[in-house]
Request: fold
Amino acid sequence: MSEGLPRYAYLGPAGTFTEAALRQVAAVGECVDLPVADVASAIDAVRTGDADFAVVAIESTVEGGVTATLDSLAAGDPLVILREMLVPVQFTLAAAPGVRLQDVRRISAHPHAWVQCRRWLAHHLPSVVHVPATSNTAPAALIAAGRSGTDAALGFDAALVPPAAVESYGLVPLAENVADNVSAQTRFVVVGHPGDVPPATGADKTTLVVHLPDNEAGALLAMLEQFAVRGVNLSRIESRPIGDALGRYSFSLDAEGHITDERVGEAVMGLHRRCPFVRFLGSYPRADAVEPTVHVGTADTDFVGARAWLQQVRGGTAT
Ligand SMILES: O=C(O)C(=O)Cc1ccccc1
Reply:
């Protein structure tokens, strides 16, 4: 019975790293899995009501921000991030039974997987051709659908696949641990409708989208100063084209702290005063549970105390 269970849209088919991230949130049977073909469709499924939540990749140690996710969240009906999950990323080069490594001419792979294995591929299979895939398990599903690995209609001989998915799709490994960076990780987020903000834990992150005032020298510096003077560290900042004219960029950033932290709230109010567009994309617990360094004069009590003092000054009672 799946009635009443939360519905999660995610990049499928089954066995992707995105599904591994979803499993950190809801076990099989605790939710309805809605596999889709791309990140934008997962996010749109929440907007249309086809899903309650989407699980999407937002940042990787190799590629930085996942632009499809950042762009989908930056515009359109507002959604928020509720939670983040980290997934270690490794790849196996796999194929249908019978295919040998020396026969491999064309490899199907998600573009992010391809870049993560570039050095290994250049060294071991220098003339191999990349056949782009929509996810890390899409080519595995094609092979499992019954086409032999050497079938010309398939268009590829092998695929870069998450290690855990090799067996479930009936593939055989040709080479394991082919990713160039052994400690590669991808950060995934749960996206849902705005509502109650997850409570502060003391180790939180706040994601924002900000547009700067046009033609103003130092506008980017002024935006960053809102955080700097209040002791708020940023763990990610990226520019993305707004899309309406050349030279117009939107900034997507993660700030350390929760919107209910005084220093973060004050910084966001500063952005609201100075910037033509600010979108709050959520405050949520950090997956690594690392607490921020609180600099002198930027604790909640400092802001509350300063506000009380100002009241006294204004009321003529300050000592
Ligand atoms: O979730 C997956 O498995 C994907 O296909 C997206 C992806 C690609 C590369 C690294 C992490 C996630």
Notes: The first strand starts at residue 7 and ends at 11.
